[in-house]
Design brief:
This protein has one helix and nine strands. It is α+β, with helices and mostly antiparallel strands. It has a nine-stranded antiparallel beta sheet. β3 and β4 form a beta hairpin. The longest helix has 24 residues. The N and C termini lie far apart (about 55 Å).
Length: about 150
């Protein structure tokens, strides 16, 4: 006949081991926020944003981001190509990484694909033909939600 106290001690020890594994896994996650701003590769512009929010979770060598950028007042777009700036970690140097565009208003309808270039902290956008999208598409109504997971 087995000793019930010994069985209970083994179960408690197994639960403590599992709990310690969960603590270690959770301790490896870094969670935070960042400013997700509209921008352009050429800089400049004269505008303000209603929303420029982003959240991230970093586990090991991967970061998952979610961002919402929305214009408020608009006088002139930034120069160059359209970017979302301010990603919390620099992407790995080996390649570009895809971005899911969850919502874009009609003013940004040409956006088809978002990419995080190698070694960068911004998102670039491309249209359905594969051409990069100019920042001149921005207007006072521009509204964009996106998410991505990328290695660092």
């Amino acid at each position: 006949m087995s000793d019930p106290n010994l069985t209970m001690q083994r179960q408690i020890q197994a639960l403590q081991t599992d709990l310690e594994r969960l603590r270690k896994a959770d301790a490896g996650a870094i969670v935070g926020t960042f400013v997700a701003g509209f921008g352009g590769s050429g800089g400049g512009g004269n505008y303000t944003q209603t929303l420029a929010i982003g959240e991230y979770t970093c586990v090991g060598d991967f970061v998952h981001i979610w961002a919402h950028a929305q214009m408020n007042a608009f006088v002139a777009p930034p120069g160059g190509n359209l970017w979302i700036t301010g990603l919390p970690f620099t992407s790995r140097a080996t390649q570009s990484y895809s971005v899911y565009i969850g919502y874009r208003n009609t003013g940004l309808a040409t956006l088809s694909v978002g990419l995080i270039p190698a070694s960068s902290t911004h998102v670039e956008f491309y249209d359905t033909t594969g051409a990069i999208v100019a920042a001149s598409v921005l207007s006072a109504a521009s509204n964009l939600l996106l998410s991505a997971t990328y290695p660092i």
